[in-house]
Amino acid sequence: MNKEKKGKAVVSALRLLKYRPRSREELRKALDSRGFSEEEINSTICYLEDLGYINDVKFMESWCYFRREVSPRGRWLVKRELLSKGISSESLEKYFDRFYPPEVEEAYLRALIAQQTAKANLQDNKDPGENRKRLTLKLYRKGFDRWLVHQLSEEAKEQIT
Question: Are 76 and 143 in contact (CB under 8 A)?
Answer without folding.
Answer: yes
